[in-house]
């Protein structure tokens, strides 16, 4: 295609949507300048500490000069094996660590490259709305036609695949449960239906699963974060899942995760990644390998925060469900019987006038309008203080 181009921005770069977080950062800076103490609940970056074994592994790797070179695929064997063992222990799924597991520099990197590896420009991607905002950029970079799958509260924020118009032929379906931003969970039966739906259409099922370990089940309750791989046969044909140590093991800054599933998909992803990056530094791989052998901690901390925040928001009259998973509270502000109409304006005003930063629902998609998302990244008393400050912000300017 010959198009007249101006400047140095490719269509790919130009297609990546801007972020409302730029507005939020400016509002937070204004609040700081005005002397407000900042309570930032806008980013889901865990404030927990990685497992001691992971920190020991990274420290000792730093003292070993043989870890300083470029890592080869063969060097990733310990992490691939640890990931396969984790998948067996956690989900009862047996993977070949050579062909069905690949280390990632986080799930976000994995998804962007996965789309490049498995789709062609112009292909259709079915994607939830609301969703984790980088999905929009990843789809844009791959030149995909996005068909949004609306997530409604009445359907427990699960997509209704039967509502996808018959004329839509998606190359891939992207799901994420436990869900960011809604905190919704999906059952294994849901994944079985989704896998069946995809198989019938020749659609790749991509499951982004970074919250696999962040669930708050009641005693005796079923797994709130099943794997999509449990919904397929032993070959995992047409199914791939992205895991991350960012949330489960508080290792967001380490940038490490792994992809699992269909060997063809994993091979295609490895090809694209081979053109873009080497594997994570050996010290980070060692840390992730060690972390995957531990029982994830910090759940009680998130549960206590949830238990502080949700009642405080209920007392304001906001419409909020108790999340059973993830580190978010997805809330629908209400004042005097009126709903929130403009989440971006509210979040910007709230940040500027009170120093409390939350994510406006609109940042996650059109269906997010009317909501705000709280990340449970502060202690209970700080969350209560945040709600007290927010109570003074009118929903309308
Ligand atoms: C749904 C979802 N996917 C991926 C990520 C990023 O994961 P990673 O840190 O492994 O890139 C996040 C982080 O918030 C997320 O919410």
Automatic annotation (TrEMBL):
Keywords: Aminotransferase, Transferase. Residues 38-390 form the Aminotransferase class I/classII large domain. Pfam families: Aminotran_1_2. Its cofactor is pyridoxal 5'-phosphate. InterPro entries: Aminotransferase_I/II_large, LL-DAP_aminotransferase, PyrdxlP-dep_Trfase, PyrdxlP-dep_Trfase_major. One of its GO terms (molecular function) is pyridoxal phosphate binding. PANTHER family: AMINO ACID AMINOTRANSFERASE, ASPARTATE TRANSAMINASE. This is Succinyldiaminopimelate aminotransferase.
């Amino acid at each position: 295609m010959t198009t007249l181009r101006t400047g140095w921005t490719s269509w790919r770069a130009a297609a990546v949507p801007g972020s409302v977080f730029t507005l939020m950062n400016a509002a937070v800076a204004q609040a700081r300048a005005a002397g407000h103490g900042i309570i930032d609940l806008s980013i889901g970056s865990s404030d927990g500490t990685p497992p001691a074994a992971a920190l020991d592994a990274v420290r000792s790797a730093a003292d070993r000069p043989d870890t300083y070179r470029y890592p080869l695929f063969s060097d990733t064997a310990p992490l691939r094996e640890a990931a396969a063992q984790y998948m067996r222990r956690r989900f009862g799924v047996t993977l070949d660590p050579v062909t069905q597991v690949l280390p990632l520099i986080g799930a976000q990197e994995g998804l962007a490259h996965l789309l490049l590896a498995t789709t062609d420009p112009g292909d259709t991607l079915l994607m939830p709305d609301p969703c984790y905002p980088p999905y929009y950029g990843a789809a844009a970079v791959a030149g995909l036609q996005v068909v949004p799958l609306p997530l409604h509260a009445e359907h427990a924020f699960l997509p209704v695949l039967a509502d996808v118009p018959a004329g839509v032929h998606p190359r891939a379906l992207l799901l994420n449960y436990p869900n960011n931003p809604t905190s919704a969970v999906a059952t294994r039966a849901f994944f079985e239906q989704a896998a069946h739906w995809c198989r019938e259409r020749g659609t790749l099922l991509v499951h982004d699963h970074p919250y696999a370990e962040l669930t708050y089940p009641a005693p005796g309750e079923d797994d709130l974060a099943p794997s999509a791989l449990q919904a397929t046969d032993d070959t995992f044909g047409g199914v791939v899942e992205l895991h991350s140590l960012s949330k489960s093991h508080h290792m967001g800054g380490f940038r490490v995760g792994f992809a699992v599933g269909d060997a063809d998909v994993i091979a295609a992803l490895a090809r694209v990644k081979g053109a873009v990056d080497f594997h994570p530094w050996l010290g980070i791989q060692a840390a992730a390998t060690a972390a995957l052998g531990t029982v994830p901690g910090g759940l009680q901390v998130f549960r206590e925060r949830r238990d502080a925040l949700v009642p405080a928001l209920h007392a304001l009259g906001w419409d909020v469900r108790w999340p059973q998973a993830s580190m978010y509270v997805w809330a629908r502000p209400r004042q005097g019987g009126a709903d929130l109409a403009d989440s971006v304006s509210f979040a910007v005003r709230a940040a500027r006038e009170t120093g409390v930063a939350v994510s406006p629902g609109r940042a996650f998609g059109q269906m997010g309008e009317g909501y705000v998302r709280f990340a449970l990244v502060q202690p209970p008393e700080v969350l209560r203080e945040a709600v007290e400050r927010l109570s003074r912000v009118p929903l309308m300017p």
